[in-house]
């Protein structure tokens, strides 16, 4: 299991001990395949030169300060971002508080005061669309020119495309909201997940259909309503179960509030999860109203057969592994025709 990176919460914590480092800068929401290409190259460069492979990210997301009405729902929390970056070998992360004052910093001041003096940066690696400073005044050309003045090199990593899609956090958000979780997983190099505590449901499933675990979701991006093939992880024991998950309003029973219920396809044993992570692999169908509970149960059993077939096919490509942390490993394989 790879260790989590050392986390710094402000510049004062980092001054004097962060450098010498190779650094990448960005929001890294989701830590998708494009981000991972930057991180892998960064780690390679840092190890070649004896520098610390490092990342600088922000909390809250800058858009929440400069354009709150356009601020996106986030794929990952800062802590989750750090854990995902650790998978690629990042050893330290500065989570810089982003506020109104910081939003007015000029590009040169950022390079001089933060990158050079505070962090001891030796190299900066960013994507081709990188912008920084007040009103995005600085771009990659600006950064390279400032690096020449303040003693750090700059390397620009081209954007990554897959199946005709230019990978970005905003695209992945849209795919998830459309229910296209399998394609989103390819772009993320891991399944999207929801996490939260297990809460008591209405008791209908255990009596009339099938017993489920209900989650009090803490994540911002929830896939479109429907029935999904998933994996459910007990975050305390890291036990993994194949599962089916329904996101919706239980229309057959006249439900009003959205619920997220997961049905385990393997024996639960003696484990009674109190907190779970649900990893979304494939969407099966929309949620719909059935004439009676018996009809719904019959459909659920049909969904179960589809899910079992899916997992048999998946195991032909890769043996399911225990996660290195509470996250499914990013090297988890997906069949080439997994679907969307």
Q: Just give the CATH class of the largest domain.
A: Alpha Beta
Distance between the first and last residues' Cα: 31 Å
Mean pLDDT comes to 89
> Into which percentage range does the β-strand content fall?
25-35%
How many DSSP H or I helices? Answer: 11
Domain count, please report it: 2
Identify the overall geometry: elongated
Largest sheet: 6 strands, parallel
Question: Radius of gyration, Cα only, in angstroms?
Answer: 22 Å
- Indicate the structural class: alpha/beta
Topology:
Layout: E1 6-8, H1 11-14, E2 21-25, H2 33-49, E3 52-59, H3 63-66, H4 78-87, E4 92-97, H5 100-103, H6 107-118, E5 121-127, H7 140-150, E6 153-157, E7 161-162, E8 165-166, H8 169-177, H9 181-188, E9 192-199, H10 204-208, E10 213-217, E11 226-234, E12 240-248, E13 259-264, E14 275-285, H11 293-315
